[in-house]
Each structure stands twice: as structure tokens, then as C-alpha cells.
Write a structure and sequence with these properties.
Helices cover 56% and strands 13% of the residues. It is built from eight helices and seven strands, in the order H-H-H-E-E-E-H-E-H-E-H-E-H-E-H. The strands form two sheets. The protein has a five-stranded parallel β-sheet with strand order 5-4-1-6-7. The chain has a two-stranded antiparallel ribbon with strand order 2-3. Helix 1 (2-23) packs antiparallel against helix 2 and helix 3 (55-83) crosses helix 8 (230-246). The two termini are 39 Å apart.
């Protein structure tokens, strides 16, 4: 058992180093893999050196780990299931959720979303897109403006693009997008069919927030994401889902 803990600790630390080399530490979340690795090494050391742990602490740890694991598995099932939903054609609008911009250049995650939106817009000529994302730190332009420039460069007509450039998170993406769609559309909001374009791991949360806020038919349109970073994204999204459920956004 000690050997398994040491192996898991080594893999966790190695994965952290891989993320660090690939993306740097623009986000502090990958540090959780370093913390997780330290936890495995500590557990392995306790088992290997036969360090006695108080019964009450063992029981509390077991309850916490068991409950957390069940919640994690259930939530990840919902997230992964949402990634696999079939695409719906001829939606009234697609909402492309923003992601990090490096200066004026889209990050890989954002570029995947742009490419997916461009593909959908080409295949569904009557659909309009709302590009949603404000200007964050180290970003020379808003995420919405970055997406608009990229899509126009790919040949998408500017008249099909609506910009929402104030939001800072997923909940704001949806909340600030609603009045833009209401002002542009001749239909009532509840009569519309709307797609949420984002990376696969983010489809569940983005779609559920939109469904609750907009109260119309909402569909997920899944963009690619890095396979190597998939585990990190899925774990981060788990905490995002839990947070939004606690805050009543889902």
C-alpha cells in the first residue's frame, strides 16, 4: 500500500511539472497536483514507517475521503456526459464563452472555441454569435474583441457577430449576454434555441447556467481541449461546478 501511495505521489508531482512546462503558472490551480502529491507521499510514509494515527482521526479522514470521492465521481460523470451530446443545427444564436488572451493573441483554449464557432457559423448560415468575455490582466483587448477579430479574419461577416465585453466569469457571460440577445432578436427569449460554445469540460456548467438564467432551449457545442491538460481541466471544473451549485447558479 505504501508503494502505491509513493507511486501516486510521484505521478502527481510529475504531472504538475508537465503542466508548468507546458503553460507556466498563469493559473495557480495546477499547484493542487503538487499538494496532492505531497499528501500521497505523507500517507505512504505513515504506512511504511508504521506511524500510529489516532482512531478518531482515521475515521474522520475516511469519512471525508469517501464522501469527497463519491461527489467527485458523480460530478465528473455529469461533466463528461455533457461533453458527448450531439450537435443541434440551425440554432438562433450561439454564445461563445471567453478565455484567456495573451496580449492580443488567443490562448489555445480560446482558439479552440473560435475554431469551433467558425465551423458552426459556416454550416449554419442563419445563426448569429454572441462573443462574450471582458478584458482581464495582461490582455490588451477584451476576449470578445479578440474572438471577433479572429472570426472576421476567417471570413465570418461582422453583422453576424454581437460583442459582450464586460463579463469576468461564466455566470456573468450568460447574465450580460441576455439583454444583447433580447435587443437583437424579434423572438421572445423563451422561444429561442441557443448554443453554448466552449471547451468540452466546460459544457456542463456553461449550459446549466444558461438554462437557468435564460429559461430557453440551450444546447452545448463542444470545442476541443488539450488531451494532456484534460485531467487538470476536469478537476478544476469539478470545483467550479460545486461552487456554482452552492451559489445557486446551476
Amino acid at each position: 500500500m505504501a508503494g502505491i501511495c509513493f507511486l501516486l505521489g510521484f505521478v502527481s508531482v510529475l504531472y504538475f511539472l508537465g503542466i508548468w512546462r507546458m503553460t507556466g503558472l498563469s493559473s495557480k490551480f495546477p499547484l493542487i497536483w503538487l499538494l496532492l502529491g505531497s499528501g500521497f507521499f505523507l500517507a505512504g510514509s505513515c504506512i511504511y514507517f508504521e506511524i500510529e494515527i489516532p482512531v478518531w482521526l482515521s475515521v474522520l479522514t475516511g469519512i471525508f475521503v469517501g464522501g469527497f470521492s463519491l461527489l467527485l465521481v458523480f460530478t465528473e460523470y455529469l461533466i463528461i456526459s455533457a461533453m458527448r451530446q450531439e450537435e443541434v443545427k440551425n440554432l438562433d444564436y450561439i454564445v461563445v464563452l471567453g478565455a484567456q488572451v495573451n496580449g492580443r493573441i488567443p490562448s489555445k483554449s480560446l482558439q479552440y472555441r473560435i475554431d469551433r464557432a467558425e465551423k458552426y457559423l459556416r454550416e449554419n448560415e442563419k445563426t448569429k454569435a454572441v462573443l462574450s468575455g471582458g478584458k482581464g490582466e495582461n490582455e490588451e483587448i477584451s476576449e470578445a474583441q479578440c474572438m471577433a477579430e479572429e472570426l472576421e479574419r476567417k471570413g465570418v461577416a461582422s453583422g453576424r457577430l454581437l460583442l459582450e465585453a464586460k463579463s469576468r466569469n461564466t455566470e456573468q457571460n450568460i447574465a450580460f449576454t441576455m439583454p444583447i440577445i433580447q435587443q437583437d432578436s424579434k423572438k421572445a427569449l423563451k422561444e429561442l434555441k441557443i448554443g453554448i460554445v466552449t471547451n468540452g469540460f466546460h459544457i456542463y456548467r456553461g449550459s446549466r447556467i444558461a438554462q437557468k438564467k435564460m429559461q430557453c432551449k440551450v444546447y452545448g457545442i463542444s470545442a476541443k481541449n488539450s488531451r494532456f491538460l484534460q485531467a487538470n481541466y476536469l478537476l478544476r471544473e469539478f470545483f467550479g461546478v460545486v461552487k456554482d451549485r452552492i451559489e445557486g447558479n446551476l
